[in-house]
Every structure is written in structure tokens, then in C-alpha cells.
Please model this.
Amino acid sequence: MSTQDWPELAKDLSALVGQVRGGIPEVMKGFSAMAKAACADGALDAKTKELVALGIAIAARCDGCITFHTRTARDLGTSREELMEVIGMAVYMGGGPSLMYGGLAVEAFDQHVADKVAE
Model:
């Protein structure tokens, strides 16, 4: 049973964010600069930083964040076992609601993996 089509949600949200980007270009330039700086190489590698973002997305209960961060985690070679440990930390920090969104993150990750295989 699927709750939603996560790869399709990513496409839909990308189009909507594109509209926002056009409407507030200076704000979005600042947001993009912040994202680039936060994701830059440092003491943590890109995959670790992406898993941190995914844990926060789960604890914050953000569907859009979950779809984008599970897709990027997949692209960075995240295993399902690593995903489960991230969900464990999110549940520890966010309680029952994070458990529900952790389930959604599993579904999103699995769909993104299947979507990549289908490409």
C-alpha cells in the first residue's frame, strides 16, 4: 500500500518551487547560497549531511523535504540499513509523529530507488 507517489511529488513540488523562485528571486538566491554553504565539503561528507537533513525532515514532518532528501540520499549511495538508523534517530528525537513520518520516508526511499532502476 502506498500513501503517495513520492517521485511524482518531487516533480510537482519542483515546479511549484520554480514559481516561488521566479516570484522572489533575491530570497531564493539567499536560500540557494545558504544550501550550498551548508552542503559544502567539511568535517562531514555529503552523504552524512544529507542523512542529517533527512532526519530533520522526518522529525519536522515535512513531506516535501522527505521526498527530496530521500532521493538525494539514494543518489549518494545510502543503503536501506542506513536509512533505518536515521529514522531511529528521528524517532528518538521526535517521538511518535516521527515514527509515522519515518514510515513515509521508507516508502519514499523505496520508490525513489525503484524509479532510478526504471530509468
Helices lie at 6-23, 25-39, 46-60, 63-75, 80-118. The chain has one domain: 6-118. The radius of gyration is 15 Å. The first helix runs from residue 6 to 23.
